[in-house]
Amino acid sequence: MKKTFALALAASTVLATGALADGHAITEFRIGILGGENAQDRMNSYQCLADYTSEALGVETKLFAPADYNGVIQGLLGGTIDMAWLGASAYAATYLQDPDAVDPVLIKVNVDGSIGYHSIGFARADSGITSLDDMAGKDFGFGDPNSTSGYLIPSIEIPQYKDGVTMESGDYFGEVKFTGGHEQTIVAVNNGDIDAGVTWADGQGNWEDGYNSGALRKAVDAGLIDMNNLVQIWKSNVIPEGPIVLRKALPDDVRATMTELVDGLHERDEDCAYGVAAGETLGFQPVTHDTYISIVEARKAKIGG
């Protein structure tokens, strides 16, 4: 359900005159950006959204790209970040620590209309590794412990694929390590620093493009990798795309304006939506907490809040 960007701007005059949050007039709006690329590339991808936000709200918009996922989570919990596109596990972590901190409002839509993606296991094409069956004694890389596709889901599903295997170093794999994020995992595998790792992709489109959207697509766009040098060795079940969240403490007019703005971003500026959504997309559509109940329960069972 798409609405025009004009609706978002209609509220800007009211908002600019002093909407209240926590009893204080809003003087700025703060957008957090999860890891996945280096900080400057993340900031560049979101600058257009920041500009539109300043126009719509009539206040300065600031971008924050913390070094890890937890920086965004804690910013939302502490009230120093107002909006972010979280992964499903990062949303679950936020919800488990404070169910009243944020609301999921929008979810990314793939080019085929679906709202899911996959954790993708990959290795160098010249490594001789074609599946997890070839990974005995090999080094394996996760991204961030708060990542859905970079940790939570593969840490659950890979042991199911290899019955009795744990993700502990020296069990089935050699060393199992956290690289720090999706881009770091991709670069580490591409450079041969680790034998294989996991990242996220929509799983649609062409492998040589890094699929239509996701961390591999962003790495291809940035010129970091040639997908012909990599091979897929594992693919998770479908994972729900993470939500765009807004702090519940924000005034209703601000929340409505920002929801309308992001909802209509693809129609207003397809290039901007491409950068924000990490690739090709049909834009965003409404979502609620119910979409993430299974992820919340999986996180609670695996790693707690």
Automatic annotation (TrEMBL):
<comment type="similarity">
    <text>Belongs to the phosphate/phosphite/phosphonate binding protein family.</text>
</comment>
<dbReference type="InterPro" id="IPR017797">
    <property type="entry name" value="Phosphnate-bd"/>
</dbReference>
<dbReference type="InterPro" id="IPR005770">
    <property type="entry name" value="PhnD"/>
</dbReference>
<dbReference type="Pfam" id="PF12974">
    <property type="entry name" value="Phosphonate-bd"/>
</dbReference>
<feature type="signal peptide">
    <location>
        <begin position="1"/>
        <end position="21"/>
    </location>
</feature>
<protein>
    <submittedName>
        <fullName>Phosphonate ABC transporter substrate-binding protein</fullName>
    </submittedName>
</protein>
<keyword id="KW-0732">Signal</keyword>
